[in-house]
Amino acid sequence: MGRYLLRRLLQLVPVFIGTTFLIYWLVWSVPGDPFAGKCGDRRCPDSYINFMTEKYQLDQSIWVQYATYMKNLFQGDFGITFNNREVADIIATAYPNTLKLAVVALAIEAVIGLTAGVLTGLRRNGFLDNLVLISTLFLIALPVFVVGFILQWLLGVKWGIVHPTVSSEMRLTELLLPGFVLGSASMAYVARVARTSIAENRRADYVRTAIAKGLPMRRVVGVHLLRNSLIPVVTLLGTDLGALMGGAIVTEGIFGINGIGRAVLRAIVTKESATVVSIVVVLVLVYLLMNLLVDLLYAALDPRIRYE
Amino acid sequence: MSDILVSEQSKPGAAGSGRPSGRLLEVEDLRVEFRTRDGVAKVINGVTYHVDAGETLAVLGESGSGKSVTAQTIMGILDTPPGFVTGGQVRFHGKDMLTMSAEERRRIRGEGIAMIFQDALSALNPVFTVGFQIAEQFRIRRGLSRSDAKKRAIEMLDQVKIPNAKGRFSNYPHQFSGGMRQRAMIAMSLALDPEVLIADEPTTALDVTVQAQIMDLLAELQRERQMGMILITHDLGVVADVADRIAVMYAGRIVEEANVYDLYAKPAHPYTMGLIDSIPRMDERGQQLRTIKGLPPNLMNIPPGCPFNPRCPMAQPVCREKLPPLLQIGTDRASACHFAEDLVNRD
């Protein structure tokens, strides 16, 4: 187990370097003058341009730039924006908000998706099954911004059940709707995967054995069937947390949440390359670690998986 | 040796409802069909047998003869749909289980009647330890504490002669060998001290050498606990040593029932004769193995008359017209062949 973990961690290194370099190269190679419009209507003075060019090593090759960036990153320095603001500050204010939103979305997704999946998997072809199949198809087919705007308008504006936007305090009750919107597509997938998994395992021999042992139905389903059926669902949920954080750009925009998505969008528009790179690097890191966690969880859930 | 219940393959529920007979477990005129998209398969067509405490009934038949489905119906683990019970009774201590409430039936499982399955690897839950799965019964059904349940589970593993039972308690099914896994399965089924044990082809998935060990173990445990045992198998060799009586099934019917000695010495049904003839024999080395020609009937379209008639070497015109009922011949055996008397009285 320890050796496996070490090997998996080592495997992360080339992936991390590869992805971050790709991002770095993409962002800094965007054509156009990085200092256009930085000095109002006038062209920036040469002294400013020279100073900035040296500061960001713009006259160096991309390799040198990347190496310097990485070196600083490992010392906890995410770089600074053109306006002399610490990128680390931007991440520190935006990240918790996105994390909160993503966790709420994940929780909603797990609870609703799993419940719907288990109920329909146990009783296929009934009314509930058809309802879930159709509604999940809807959620999968509709882009998140459509779901977001419709629900915001219906629940927030027309019926006034919730506040249409999220305040800076990020209260849990405010986050329910954005969380639902963000997790909606994944929720549909979770429901479908859980449904298939339950339906497949329901007729398994070991379930029949559990019934033959005279265990109450509650226990047969809740312990024997569920534990086996959960394995693919957990994988799906685990990898999803990373995706939810990266995919929050639209949702954060709709509900006015000050998170990573908005920060990265603003940085792209204003060509704040240092900010873009650092935010994406953090997202990559979260994604990689979540994947590792899922693999370890997988072994905890299924003892047949052995790590050599 | 007990006498044979004679069945006229009567209408469902017509005979003997509620009549206390003192029998431990009896199946009477059971009928089960599978309703599939392609049609209705009549899988069980009036099966009647019983087992008493301390005796072993072997149910013999080829795949599709309905022996396992009968067992599943007794246990109440028949997959519905497609399987539906359309008639008959399954009485435990004289009480029909098919009309019991689900809760009443559940209580009988494990404590009254327990079952072991053919493939222990798929029958055990892969994500729980073997110990957990045995201890679970003591915890859930007997309300024992975790540690007491564990103690009892280790005792059970010990009883089925699993070496190092204490250490094996926390192993997963995939960490056991085939034979050990079946032993664990037996330990699990016997945990609640059932009165009847149904063993559905318990050795089919095992190596030949291990088969004998498992059969010996089962026979020993059955004797010790004075259980009634229903041993389902397609292997005539397996039953000879352990069974008291044998019921031979064909196309969802019992075609012959007799004690082991009579059945081997003088089968009273051509199908049984064919089965015995097809056992490979040491003194016929190098010769082609004998088989029963033809295939079992399509259960969606069972031929009229005796279902065995298309394959029967002695079939007469009457066999294609009239279904032979299971009738008693002599003192303690029965056969569903029009010419059963002739077969028994031949030299």
TrEMBL record, chain A:
Residues 95-298 form the ABC transmembrane type-1 domain. GO terms for biological process: transmembrane transport. GO terms for cellular component: plasma membrane. Its main location: membrane. It is a multi-pass membrane protein. It comes from the Bacteria. It is found in: Cell membrane. InterPro entries: BPD_transp_1_N, MetI-like, MetI-like_sf. The chain crosses the membrane at residues 9-28, 101-119, 131-155, 175-194, 276-301. Keywords: Cell membrane, Membrane, Transmembrane, Transmembrane helix, Transport. SUPFAM superfamilies: MetI-like (SSF161098). Belongs to the binding-protein-dependent transport system permease family. This is Oligopeptide transport system permease protein. It comes from Micromonospora haikouensis.
TrEMBL record, chain B:
PROSITE patterns: ABC_TRANSPORTER_1, ABC_TRANSPORTER_2. Gene3D superfamilies: P-loop containing nucleotide triphosphate hydrolases (3.40.50.300). One of its GO terms (cellular component) is plasma membrane. Its main location: membrane. Residues 1-22 are annotated as: Disordered. GO terms for biological process: peptide transport. Belongs to the ABC transporter superfamily. PANTHER family: DIPEPTIDE TRANSPORT ATP-BINDING PROTEIN DPPD (PTHR43297:SF2), OLIGOPEPTIDE TRANSPORT ATP-BINDING PROTEIN APPD (PTHR43297). This is Oligopeptide transport system ATP-binding protein. It comes from Micromonospora haikouensis.
